[in-house]
Automatic annotation (TrEMBL):
Signal peptide: 1-19
Span of domain Glycosyl hydrolase family 30 beta sandwich: 452-513
Record's subcellular location: Lysosome membrane
Keyword Mitochondrion: no
Swiss-Prot/TrEMBL GO biological process terms: autophagy; cholesterol metabolic process; glucosylceramide catabolic process; lysosome organization; negative regulation of macromolecule metabolic process; protein catabolic process; regulation of macroautophagy; regulation of membrane potential
Source organism of this protein record: Danionella cerebrum
Membrane topology of this protein: Peripheral membrane protein
Glycosyl hydrolase family 30 TIM-barrel domain boundaries: 99-448
The protein's name: Glucosylceramidase
Amino acid sequence: MRETALLILLSGVIASVRGGSQGDCQALNFGYGSIVCVCNATYCDSAGPIELPDPGQFLSYVSDKAGRRLVQSKGNIQRNSTGTGLRITLNPVQKYQRIKGFGGAMTDAAAMNILSLSPGAQDQLLRQYFSPYGIEYRIVRVPMASCDFSTRLYTYADSPGDYSLQNFTLSEEDVRMKIPLLQRAQALSAQSLYLFGSAWSAPAWLKTNGALTGKGSLKGKPGGKEHKTWAQYYIRFLEEYGKYNLSFWALTTGNEPTAGQMTNYSFQALGFTPETQRDWVALDLGPALHSSVFSETRLIILDDNRPLLPYWAKVVLSDISAARFIHGIGVHWYFDQFAPPDITLTSTHHLFPEYFLLATEACSGWSPMDPGVRLGSWDRAEDYAHDIIQDLNNYVTGWVDWNLALNREGGPNWVRNFVDSPIIVDPSKDVFYKQPTFYAMAHFSKFLWEESQRVGLSISQNTRLEISAFVRPDASVVLIILNRSKEEVEFEVWDQVLGFLPGRAPARSILTLLWNRH
């Protein structure tokens, strides 16, 4: 890390970048291409609640490599074309998928990092993610017991032979860290949060390899006592969290089932093939959920990387006994470059249109070629925005980031699998840094309400701009534009009801436009 940046911070020379209506970004440059915004217990920049512009006007929010962060401006909708060469024509008659939401994961590591700050800074951080003054996350992924972003290996039922799960017990990490933070997040949110649980591994005594890590699957066969016990583990998890007034919108069938099929896999995993996942859902997990008080809880299959589609979905969802219990398909982003979205996401949607697609995990810094935390990396913000737009334009209904907060190292992580996060905490200074990826998420999560519907658009000429358009439930329009090029791009948006919106996408920028069609 560029420690000279800390000297700048200590000397009090912190640049201000004009942000939204609730204050400026206190900017700090660590030498990774752009800036972070520094927040503490008493101050943090915020876009604040966003109100629709007056009729005939539109709002524009821009974040860019140069250092702007959700900078708001107002423009007028014009009757006549501006004459700009690039025209983006809105076609709201073409309707596609509806949005569920955006969010991140409350891992053990995220909870530990948030709680390492003072109470005031904790509140500030949670407010930035969940409140109307923040970026209004709606979805939170909750690991069921330990994962690599834990400091120890554990499940909730580590007593060998406990097939009735009489000794099932939530961990200290749940009771003292994750649950209180989830309750605080819900209290800050203007709407109900959608929690979904993902398990990394079954207890070792239920597995073929007798360990939480490495290559291993459930003993026996679907329908057998090990598979039924693992299904009941899910029910017990929902029951125990319910005691804290936390209900779950969904469960996945398990994090990255292909990882548990790999020899010498380094952290927690449970192997399934699509065939065994299909049969476990049909014979065990589906019936267990259906016959419980949690029958409305959605079930999401796969929770693994996109190249597995559409094959995995075909195997599982073509079986009516399994398909009747399933609601959605979860995808991770780690190998998206090897899996064109049209032949994976869109093909899967057309094969199984009644099942939603949800991006359930992503993070920067996972690749050995570019590992760990990069404070202020704009490239990573562009990676986020590119992937989100690509997903949304191929029928995905939401996008869930990985750890809500990590430390300067990118952990803690018991296997030292350090990655990056939109918020990095530094407890020694009682501050946290909002990364460019935080603002990349904001350009979507802050504006795309639940039930917003993607609509058609056409572009008059070839362009480097990446664009997605939505009509919100109140009939207002959101247009999100990513410009990864080094040149500013002028454009106009033609709303055939209202007129023309003149715009500029600065070099290396993310832009969100908002206007009212009434």
